[in-house]
Amino acid sequence: MKRPLAIKKGDQIGLVAPARKIRKQEILDAISIIEGNGYVVGYTDELFADYHQFAGNDNIRTNYFQKMLDDEEVSALISVRGGYGSVRIIDKIDFSRFAHNPKWIIGYSDITVFHSHINKNYGVETLHATMPLNFKDNSQKALSGLFDILEGGSPDYVIDPNPINRKGECEGILTGGNLSVLYSLLGSKSFPETEGKILFIEDLDEYLYHIDRMMIAFKRSGIFNGLKGMIVGGMTEMNDNEVPFGQTAEEIIRDVVSDFDFPVCFGFPAGHFSNNLPLIMGAEVSLNVSDEVFINF
């Protein structure tokens, strides 16, 4: 995998909106934070296009993303928010120039489409991290971690044990992202290769039986067969039916992968909450699940 070049103070970070629409006032705090860290913020009024729930129709979002992707003055691209919409435009974007001179692509949730597509098809690392819509609520660790990686750092994490962790050690390339988005990519050229990889998953606002259905689909599709390890992030604001499913999301995941022997870490602080720690997707990572959990890039 190829890692984009580190950015430096004074470089331009471009704002993009490949999914749900955004209003400028929603990201004013984030613009101030980016500028306060020494960077120039790049965008045009097209960022705030409005078409139903999307940031402009598919052509507007595609053309704007393409323009920012190819702009040599833009050193990194961060999606202002997630929502839904990236999968509608991913096949319309020409990554040929990007592949020869990659820049950091940043975001999470719906931006899983970009992480998976770029990692698999172009061998370029991307950054699963918080987005400007969330900046005002993020922990300092989430924000400082984002800028540290952009400037050339590599994170090392030590997190508390979880009682349902499965112990073990492994090394592999990190892949994955939002579980529901990954599920929507099954069978497409954007779904990640998982053989020999460490799979990260997180999700928000899903019914528990949906989590079970997606995990069973992954199992039946052979997604877990060659995994080296799994990291489970936030399973946030899960929903249940009137007749309870009977397990938490974490317990569902634990049981679906119980036939495999790879280490599993639960409760990694990445996902839909304030302390959303950054992960370099496509990077080689070591995972040690013991009395504590060590994740080293």
Explain what this protein looks like in three dimensions.
- 27% of the residues lie in helices and 23% in strands.
- The mean pLDDT is 98.
- The protein contains 9 helices and 13 strands.
- It folds into 2 domains: 139 residues, Murein tetrapeptidase LD-carboxypeptidase, N-terminal domain (Rossmann fold); 141 residues, LD-carboxypeptidase A C-terminal domain-like (Glucose Oxidase, domain 1, 3-Layer(bba) Sandwich).
Radius of gyration: 18 Å
Give the topology string: H per helix, E per strand.
Answer: EHEHEHHEHEHEEHEHEHEEEE
Oligomer: single chain
Low-confidence stretches: none
As for the CATH topology of the largest domain, it is: Glucose Oxidase, domain 1
3D shape: globular
Query: What is the CATH C-level name of the largest domain?
Result: Alpha Beta
Q: Strand percentage, roughly?
A: 15-25%
| Secondary structure: number of strands | 13
In terms of structural class, how would the helical and strand content be classed? alpha/beta
Q: Give the helix proportion (percent range).
A: 25-40%
Q: How far from one another are the termini? A: 13 Å
Strand order across the largest sheet:
6-13-12-7-8-9-10
Helix count?
9
Concise synopsis of the structure shown:
With 297 residues, the protein is of the alpha/beta class.
